[in-house]
Design goal:
The structure holds 2 protein chains of 2 kinds.
Chain A (H helix, E strand, L loop, with lengths): L14 H19 L8 H19 L6 H13 L4 H18 L6 H62 L3 E6 L4 E4 L1 H7 L11 H4 L2 H16 L4 E9 L5 E12 L5 E9 L4 H13 L9 H14 L6 E8 L2 H8 L1 H18 L4 E6 L4 E7 L7 H13 L2 E3 L2 E3 L3 E7 L7 H16 L5 E3 L9 H15 L3 E10 L5 E12 L3 E3 L1 H11 L2 H18 L5 E4 L2 H5 L3 H12 L6 E6 L6 H12 L3 E7 L3 H9 L4 E4 L5 H9 L4 E4 L5 H10 L3 E2 L16
Parallel strand pairs in A: 11-12, 14-16, 16-17, 17-18, 18-19, 19-20, 20-21
Antiparallel strand pairs in A: 1-2, 1-5, 3-4, 4-5, 6-8, 6-11, 7-8, 9-10, 13-14, 13-21, 14-15
Helix pairs in contact in A: 1-2, 1-4, 2-3, 3-5, 4-5, 11-12, 12-13, 15-16, 16-17, 17-19
Chain B lengths: L18 H9 L6 H13 L3 H21 L4 E5 L9 H8 L4 E6 L2 H11 L5 E5 L5 H5 L2 H6 L7 E5 L11 H11 L5 E7 L5 H14 L10 H7 L4 E2 L5 E2 L15 H5 L1 E7 L2
Parallel strand pairs in B: 1-2, 1-4, 2-3, 4-5
Antiparallel strand pairs in B: 5-8, 6-8, 7-8
Helix pairs in contact in B: 1-2, 2-9, 3-4
Classes of the chains: A alpha/beta, B alpha/beta.
S-adenosylmethionine binds next to helix 1, helix 3 and strand 2 of chain B.
Keywords (chain A): Nucleotidyltransferase, Transferase
Organism (chain A): Umezawaea endophytica
Protein name (chain A): Diguanylate cyclase
């Protein structure tokens, strides 16, 4: 590397001095290479630093101190690669000591000042250059970001352009063809018209499908489109069906352009005139149906859910199943996408077979997910039997590309939801149950933790809850939480209470369990959070505690709900404590929500802490602000264990002074219970 | 529809960190955004020597490419190439022989855009925007077809890459498909993070990444598990070892801290 600071007319140092310089350069190389990242081999770096050391020595050499030379060395050093602060520190340490010891700079009294100034100049040069480099790197990242966004948009535009073409001009089959005639995409209708499976069309060219006598006319048309003389050409063509028959078909061909406005593909819309009516029906079906399996799609399913819920026999209700194929990704990865597609078709068939005797709507959701809505009757088997039948059917291997595949599904189940439940909440509930089931393959999970699922009374109660809530029978009540040290009120816990006209008041735990069964807990829980947050603000920001059920805790929408409520009510996140039980937190989604809430500044509480190993892990791994202890004979030990973690300790059910005193000495900080006041309506409390 | 991509391209979302940019930050570069630096800082707090480990990995990249070049390899496929930083594969390889051809692959759209900008004008190197889990779209990409000759040995690099692929994706099957596509004499170089030596710290760092909601998520594997992934290749001496222990040539190749030499395992294998 030529170095402008190293002028050829500088007198060479004496042999000994030369040797000492080389030794210093080697040391510099050795130490520097351990802290920086440079694209040079050890020898290259050694050579480079040798030259730089010469420049340094010349720059501070007797009588000719030149800061510019040293600054250039700093600049050069920076340009070697990722040097940064560690590299500069190492350089200054090595040269600081090393230069002072070089024979050419003896006696030190006469050179020390120039060495100090020189290293300062080197650092200045490095700093300036490093700053420039960082700015350049940052700018190059901005540029890359813009480019990435633009590229992503243009891909999107391209596919949207294709899609528009499909949507506007289609009443039947569609093919997308590359400019050299290769078939890129074809929809199912093409296959139907020509008698192929969509997969069989992969890799064919347009001209494989066209009757030889028609090929020339078609080629001409393509040329005209490419020349730009025509934008859309409609011809009657003869195509070849798989069985060798000729089909007289009208083809509309048009050109697709990419973002660069260059022609990128051809779109061919195929109409089988003889079957036009049929095809129009088909198109309508396609909008609401999944092309691959022919099943209704999610939109169709969603929009029919509401009607089905209303129509359902009130005695037996409906059951919603959300199914997900296990290991579908593995099938696609190892056998390819098309094998995956065939498998999906097979699964759709199996579902139809198993459910053929039931009144069921089967839909394909996205990817490998299916939905089933069963309208139950007296003869409908129970959920366990249905899931077992489905899995038994799927366990029969099906042959895809010569591989016998047997698969299983995981299923989320919502059994007999309340007919008033909003369909989107219902789908979400099924999805939540599915996520839980997914943790163990081939399993199903009822959105319904209660064991006495068949307890009609409980069912009836659960089902009547939404109406009761609407009637104002379900209310928010508040239980004071006191500081054990002095008995002062430290906040309130918001709870549900159902003032049932026949059964009397049902407490929070009962309400939550009932609402949990039917999915009502998601809207009801958000409501409790909202009114209590508003109330807490009204009470001049009294700290508020709200406990969540397992399904609320794992709800993918939880953080949005909390953000929304905080925004609407103006409650500061730090004033809100959200509790999740240790059981609920074993579900990864819940733990994730917990972390996000903590990041948002919400005070997070580990509820029902029992001191088991798993509980301790949670305490250790999650950002826990407070812990509510489960009743336990080892209270003192538990409190001590938690105390070390820095979390505030809450206890409940404290009814007497003695209990309060014993908890206090055990290390608990806050308590609720009869001693400090029962849960009541907001009007009966003041702050 | 007849043909579809098997994978969903990552979003351009700079509200979450990308591991390509975070890695650049840890190496000491400026090709990153505030979110990336924030996780970088958190991970460095958990593992103060992390910069060492990154440097040691990057140094291994240089040794592996030079080793392959010395074995006669002139074409390279670098999957999970990240943000071009210092000592990129094409620079190392082309400094040995300017005829070397390199195809980079990454799924991170910003890393890809950056690479495209940097490689503009280099007709012997190109980048493909694709996911490692979709070998066909990589092997059949126009760039690979233009620059690589699969009848000749290829140097395949997957450095700090495989631990972003989860077990659901059938990694052994994927590696087998790459192996099948390569001519005998092709080389594979791999580095892979592990919790074998710094279990606690590595788990914590993994957790930081998980919470950051990055689109890259860590899958830690043990020495035995990584070894099993490479069974289709004959590993050259010294086998699968701590990155700093793979044929170090000088202080640039190792760290003072044994833990940082062992944080990622490294190996080079040959397809027979
Ligand atoms: C830490 S960087 C490694 C850079 C370089 N290989 C090195 O070792 O110095 C890891 C890169 O792998 C990419 N990556 C992760 N998973 C990938 C996948 N499935 N397919 C392609 N690239 C992936 C990330 O985007 C990131 O750029």
């Amino acid at each position: 590397m030529p170095n402008p600071g190293h002028s050829p007319d500088t007198p060479s140092p004496q042999p000994d001095a030369e040797r000492r310089r080389r030794a210093l350069a080697r040391k510099w190389t050795y130490l520097l290479s351990g802290v920086v990242v440079v694209p040079l081999t050890a020898e290259e770096l050694d050579r480079e630093l040798g030259e730089q050391l010469d420049a340094v020595c010349d720059g501070i050499g007797a009588g000719q101190y030149d800061p510019k030379v040293l600054e250039r060395v700093g600049d050069r050093l920076c340009a070697l690669g990722y040097i940064g602060e560690p590299g500069l520190r190492c350089t200054l340490e090595v040269l600081g000591k090393g230069l002072l010891a070089l024979p050419e700079f003896q006696p030190v009294e006469s050179t020390a000042e120039r060495i100090v100034l020189g290293l300062g100049a080197l650092a200045v040069g490095f700093l300036a250059s490093n700053q420039r480099a960082v700015i350049e790197q940052q700018e190059s990242m901005q540029l890359s970001l813009f480019k990435a966004v633009r590229d992503a948009k243009s891909n999107l535009r391209e596919s949207e352009a294709r899609f528009d073409e499909v949507a506007t001009s289609s009443s039947s089959g569609i093919m997308i063809i590359s400019l050299d005639g290769q078939l890129v995409r074809a929809n199912a209708a093409i296959g139907d018209i020509l008698g192929y499976l969509p997969a069989e069309l992969t890799g064919t060219t347009l001209f494989d499908l066209v009757h030889p006598d028609s090929a020339d006319v078609l080629r001409d048309a393509m040329r005209q489109l490419l020349d730009g003389t025509e934008t859309r050409i409609r011809q009657s063509q003869r195509l070849l069906r798989k069985n060798g028959e000729t089909a007289r078909i009208s083809l509309t061909t048009s050109l697709l352009r990419g973002t660069d406005d260059e022609p990128s593909h051809l779109v061919i819309v195929v109409e089988d005139g003889t079957e036009l009516m049929l095809l129009q029906g088909e198109l309508k079906r396609q909008v609401l149906h999944d092309v691959l399996t022919g099943l209704p799609n999610r939109q169709y399913f969603g929009s029919n859910l509401e009607a089905a819920l209303r129509r359902a026999d009130p005695e037996h209700g409906v059951t919603l199943l959300h199914l997900d194929l296990d290991a579908f990704g593995m099938v696609c990865n190892s056998l390819g996408r098309q094998a995956g597609d065939r498998l999906l078709v097979h699964v759709a068939q199996c579902l139809k077979v198993v459910l053929s005797r039931e009144k069921a709507m089967i839909a394909r959701f996205d990817g490998d997910e299916f939905g089933v809505l069963l309208e139950n009757s007296a003869t409908t088997p129970d959920v366990a039997t249905i899931v077992a039948d489905i899995n038994a059917e799927l366990a029969e291997p099906t042959f895809v590309d010569g591989h016998g595949l047997a698969v299983s599904v995981s299923v989320g189940v919502v059994h007999r939801p309340s007919p008033d439940l909003d369909p989107t909440e219902l789908l979400r509930a099924a999805d939540l149950a599915l996520r839980r089931a997914k943790t163990r393959r081939g399993q199903w999970e009822l959105y319904h933790p209660d064991q006495d699922a068949h307890d009609r009374e409980a069912q009836a109660l659960a089902v009547s809850m939404p109406g009761a809530w609407e009637q104002g029978e379900v209310v928010a009540v508040y239980r004071p939480v006191a500081r054990l040290a002095d008995g002062a009120t430290a906040g309130v816990e918001a709870l549900l209470r159902w003032d049932h006209p026949d059964l009397g008041p049902l407490d929070h735990d009962r309400c939550a369990a009932l609402a949990e069964q039917t999915g009502l807990i998601l809207p009801l829980g958000e409501w409790l959070l909202r009114v209590s947050s508003g109330q807490a603000v009204w009470w001049k920001n009294v700290p508020l505690i709200v406990g969540l059920t397992a399904h609320q805790a794992a709800d993918a929408d939880l953080t949005n709900r909390v953000v929304r409520v905080l925004k609407e009510t103006g409650l500061r996140p730090g004033q809100l404590t959200i509790g999740m039980s240790v059981q609920a937190l074993r579900v990864p989604e819940a733990a994730e929500n917990f972390g996000v809430l903590a990041d948002m500044g919400v005070a997070t509480m580990l509820d029902g802490f029992g001191g088991g190993a798993a509980d301790l892990v949670l305490l250790d791994e999650l950002p826990v602000r407070s812990v509510r202890l489960a009743p336990s004979p080892f209270a003192t030990e538990l409190a001590a264990m938690v105390h070390g973690s820095g979390a505030t300790i809450l206890v409940s059910g404290v009814d007497t002074e003695e209990q309060a005193a014993s908890w206090h000495s055990a290390g608990a900080d806050l308590a609720s219970g009869d001693l400090f006041g029962t849960a009541r309506l907001p009007g009966d409390l003041s702050f | 529809m007849a043909q579809q991509r098997d994978w969903v391209p990552q979003d351009v979302d700079i509200s979450v960190p990308s591991m390509a940019r975070t890695y650049d930050y840890i190496l000491g570069g400026g090709h990153n955004f505030a979110v990336d630096r924030a996780v970088g800082v958190q991970i460095e707090q958990i593992m103060p020597g992390l910069r060492q480990a990154a440097r040691v990995n990057r140094a291994f990249l240089g040794r592996a490419v030079r080793f392959m070049a010395d074995q006669g390899i002139r074409q390279f496929l670098d999957i999970g190439s990240g943000i071009p930083t210092v000592s990129n594969v094409h620079e190392v390889a082309q400094s040995r022989d300017p005829e070397c051809r390199i195809v980079y692959v990454d799924r991170d759209p910003i890393a890809v855009a950056h690479s495209e900008l940097m490689l503009a004008g280099n007709d012997r190197a190109a980048i493909v925007h694709a996911d490692m889990r979709d070998p066909e779209s990589i092997l059949a990409s126009p760039e690979a077809r233009r620059l690589l000759d699969f009848d000749e040995p290829v140097g395949l690099l997957m450095l700090l890459m495989l631990h972003w692929v989860d077990d659901e994706s059938d990694l052994p099957g994927l590696l087998a498909r790459y192996g099948d596509a390569l001519a005998p004499g092709s080389h594979l170089a791999v580095t892979h993070a592990s919790g074998d030596h710094q279990g606690r710290e590595v788990t914590d760092a993994t957790e930081v990444i998980r919470r950051s909601r990055s689109q890259d998520q860590m899958n830690l594997r043990t020495h035995a598990e990584i070894g099993a992934l490479l069974k289709g290749f004959d590993l050259v001496e010294p086998g699968l070892v701590g990155c700093g222990e793979w044929r170090p040539e000088g202080p640039a190749d190792i760290s003072d801290s044994p833990d940082m030499n062992m944080l990622v395992y490294a190996a080079v294998g040959v397809k027979s």
